[in-house]
Amino acid sequence: MKARATSADSRRVVPRHWGYLAGDTVAAARRLLGCTLVSTLDGVETGGVIVETEAYLGLKDPASHAHASKGRTPRNDAMFAGLGTLYVYVSYGIHHCLNVVTGEAGDPVAVLVRALEPSTGLDAMAERRGRAGDLCNGPGRLAQALGITLRHNYHDLARPPVQLVKGAPVSDADVGSSGRIGVSRAEDWPLRFFVRGHPAVKAPRW
Question: pTM of this prediction?
Answer without folding.
Answer: 0.91
